[in-house]
Amino acid sequence: MKRCILILILFSVIVSQAQQLQTKFQPAPAWLKTAAFYQIYPQSFKDTDGDGIGDINGIISKLDYLKWLGIDAIWLNPCFESSFQDAGYDVTDFYRVAKRYGTNADLERLFKEAHKRKMRVCLDLVAGHTSIDHPWFKASQSAVRNEFSDRYIWTNDSTVKPLKHISGKFERNGTYRKNFFDCQPALNYGFANPEPNQPWQLPVTAEGPQKTRKELMKIMDFWMTMGCDGFRVDMAPSLIKNDPDRVETNKLWAEIRNHFQQRFPEGILIAEWGNPMRAIKAGFMMDFIIHLGNDGYSSLFFNKEGTYRHDTCYFNVEGNGTPTTFVNYYLEQLKRVGDSGYVCVPTANHDFQRPNCGTRNTDEQLRTVTAFLMTIPGVPLFYYGDEIGMKFIPGLPSKEGSQLTKGNRAGSRTPMQWDSSPNAGFSTASPDKFYLPIDSSAYRPNVESEMANPSSLLHFNRYLLQLRKQYPALGTRGAIRFLYAEANKYPLVYERSANGQRFVIVINPSGKSVQADCPFSGAVKEFKPVLVDRSSLLKVKDKLQIKADGVSYGIFQVVE
Ligand code: NOJ
Question: Is 86 in the pocket of ligand 1 (CB under 6 A)?
Answer without folding.
Answer: yes
